[in-house]
Amino acid sequence: MNPDPDLFALDEIPEDARAAVDEAERAVAAVRDRAERRVAAIRDQVEQECAAVRDRAEAEVAGVQQDTTRELAPLVRHLLETLRGLQERYARDGKLDEALAIRARVRQLRGDLLGVRPDPGNLVEFGPAEVGRHFLFEVVGRTDGSVWGTDAYTADSRLAAAAVHAGAVRVGERGLVRVTILDGTAREYTGTTHNEVSSYDYAAYPVAFRVERV
């Protein structure tokens, strides 16, 4: 009984047959290599296009958010000034419960209508997904706490001190600031002294922020 020819080991077949097999295997490998390169190129192109779409969408969303904030700001400011006037009047009249209730309502309205957030200390909770977005915070200017950079600050910098350094609020002043989350991967942070706050140099940090007066 003759053995199945498919079971012959490669080193047992004639040289011309082995050469044919080797040539076929090289051809198959070349086709697969070209296919893998094409697939990789397609994936890279799709990822670049998706990234560009995401960037455009985030920029448009950020623009809408800014426009909405600017449109709402005078309306909310007028309401808050009215309520503060009432709060002061009730306080002068000795009606402290009413004054405290108005103050609590003012704080709630600032958050509900303008999206104002309390001072988080630093911005480490914000990652690359928030790059380009804007946030409003209520801070009291301080000189203590570490700050790295100038104009653009590392996310682990103390917001209240960075706001003073940037001129967004004064020391001891309570105010609203707008924070923009920035890509920090390609930045170098240079320390300077401004407004009684000294910041420090830092080589690289993945997320940064800019802070401005509202």
Write a brief caption for the model.
By secondary structure, the chain is α+β, with helices and mostly antiparallel strands.
Task: Please describe the topology of this protein.
Elements: H1 15-92, H2 96-114, E1 116-118, E2 134-140, E3 149-150, E4 152-154, H3 159-165, E5 174-183, E6 193-194, E7 197-198, E8 207-213
Parallel strand pairs: 1-2
Antiparallel strand pairs: 2-5, 3-4, 4-8, 5-8, 6-7
Helix pairs in contact: 1-2
Describe what you observe in this structure.
The chain is of the alpha+beta class. The protein has a domain at 116-214: Ferric Hydroxamate Uptake Protein, Chain A, domain 1 (Beta Complex). It is built from 3 helices and 8 strands; from the N terminus they run H-H-E-E-E-E-H-E-E-E-E. It has helices spanning 15-92, 96-114, 159-165; strands at 116-118, 134-140, 149-150, 152-154, 174-183, 193-194, 197-198, 207-213. The strands form 2 sheets. A 6-stranded mixed β-sheet has the order 1-2-5-8-4-3, sandwiched between helices. The termini are far apart. The mean pLDDT is 86.
